[in-house]
């Protein structure tokens, strides 16, 4: 009986007037609406998303059909494309689209920022730590980066090196690729199967085995990325602060590892060989190393007061290589106060490359 019904349905469909619109086949119904007969190619794609028996007839008017199909496919999209700009050499980030504008920071060769708009004067408007800034197209170009579509479910750090599989749809080659995550890397988990985690790190998006050497980071903790010169403050699997920093210079590098805050110091001096620097807050996490402010403070008359030695645009980029700290993590004033407000003795601090 089922086969007879199918044959009858096909006979009725073929008896209708076929109208070609934008390369798709539509059939005119008695109520003057239209129904789309999906092509074999599209049917195959959709069958991978839903259990569909042939023939597929969608009772929609033509202008809504393509939108409906796109919407159905889009809801299964696991990775989102992010229009971005990549630096071909170290380039200044400016607060306006001209070479005379104030500096906001520096983008290091190979690093990217999210593209907001391509201007007609040779500049790109980009997002730099939630601020609209500008990059010259003389030293940069457009590219596509990716992020995982969803919320962070849990966070780990790698206790040893870990293999990661990068899906073909977001790989450079267009094929499945393999890479190695270094020890101490921070891994944000967005999804999981019985045997794998879908993770995002500072360099990769992909799948790792659940049996990998991992340790979960929970509650409130700080992650300092030496390579990106960036600090993230996490709280209950959410990033509540992301800010540029300056870590130890090449001759006095910041120690890597998982530490915890053990002491606070406020309104005091940091004293060492050849320096005596006043700071508002110091959060010690590893012997003499800690998180502290170093941004220049100015009085109401515009003159520098008695503490701070780094201009805001010096944070991030590659300042640390030759003009970094003695091992501490130098921070902007507002950022160090926010970290202070959300942490306590025992809060973990992960420092990694």
CATH class of the largest domain: Mainly Beta
Q: How many discrete domains? A: 4
CATH architecture of the largest domain: Beta Barrel
Overall mean pLDDT: 84
- Report the sheet with the most strands, covering strand number, pairing sense and barrel closure: 5 strands, antiparallel
Spatial gap, N to C terminus: 67 Å
CATH topology of the largest domain: L,D-transpeptidase catalytic domain-like
Cα-atom Rg, whole angstroms? 27 Å
**DSSP summary, beta strand count:** 27
> How many separate helices?
5
What's the helical proportion of residues? 10-25%
Low-pLDDT segments:
1-76
Topology:
Layout: H1 2-14, E1 18-21, E2 24-28, E3 34-37, H2 40-47, E4 57-59, H3 62-74, E5 79-87, E6 91-94, E7 103-107, E8 112-118, E9 123-128, E10 131-136, E11 140-148, E12 154-158, E13 162-166, E14 177-181, E15 186-192, E16 196-200, E17 205-209, E18 214-216, E19 220-225, E20 230-235, E21 238-244, E22 257-260, E23 263-272, E24 275-286, E25 289-293, H4 319-323, E26 329-331, H5 333-342, E27 348-352
Fold and architecture overview:
By secondary structure, this protein is mainly beta. Helices cover 14% and strands 44% of the residues. Strands 10-9-8-5-11 form a 5-stranded antiparallel beta sheet, with no helix packed on it. A hairpin with a 2-residue loop joins strand 23 and strand 24 (275-286). It starts with a helix and ends with a strand. The model is unreliable at 1-76 (pLDDT under 50).
């Amino acid at each position: 009986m089922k086969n007879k019904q199918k044959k009858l349905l096909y006979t009725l469909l073929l008896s209708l007037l076929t109208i070609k619109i934008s390369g798709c086949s539509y059939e005119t119904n008695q109520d003057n609406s239209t129904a789309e007969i999906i092509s074999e190619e599209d049917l195959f794609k959709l069958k991978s998303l839903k259990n569909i028996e042939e023939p597929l007839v969608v009772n929609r008017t033509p202008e809504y059909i393509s939108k409906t199909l796109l919407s159905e496919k889009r809801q299964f999209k696991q990775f989102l494309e992010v229009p971005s700009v990549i630096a071909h050499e170290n380039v200044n980030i400016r607060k306006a689209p001209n070479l005379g504008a104030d500096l906001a920071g520096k983008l290091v060769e190979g690093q990217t920022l999210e593209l907001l708009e391509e201007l007609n004067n040779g500049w790109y408007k980009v997002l730099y730590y939630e601020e609209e800034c500008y990059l010259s197209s003389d030293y940069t170009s457009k590219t596509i980066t990716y992020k995982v579509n969803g919320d962070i479910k849990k966070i780990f750090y790698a206790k040893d090196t870990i293999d990661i599989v990068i899906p073909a749809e977001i790989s450079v080659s267009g094929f499945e690729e393999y890479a190695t995550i270094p020890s101490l890397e921070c891994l944000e988990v967005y999804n999981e199967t019985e045997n794998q985690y879908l993770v995002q790190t500072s360099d990769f998006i992909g799948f790792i085995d659940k049996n990998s050497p991992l340790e979960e980071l929970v509650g409130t903790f700080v992650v300092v990325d030496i390579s990106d010169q960036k600090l993230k403050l996490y709280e209950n699997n959410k990033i509540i602060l992301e800010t540029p920093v300056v870590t130890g210079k090449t001759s006095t590098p910041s120690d890597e590892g998982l530490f915890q805050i053990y002491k606070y110091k406020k309104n005091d001096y940091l004293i060492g060989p050849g320096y005596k620097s006043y700071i508002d807050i110091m959060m010690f996490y590893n012997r003499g190393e800690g998180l502290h402010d170093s941004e220049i403070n100015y009085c109401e008359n515009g003159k520098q007061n008695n503490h701070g030695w780094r201009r805001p645009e010096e944070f991030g980029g590659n300042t640390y290589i030759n003009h970094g700290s003695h091992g501490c993590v130098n921070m902007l004033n507002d950022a160090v106060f926010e970290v202070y407000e959300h942490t306590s003795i025992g809060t973990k601090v992960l420092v990694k490359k």
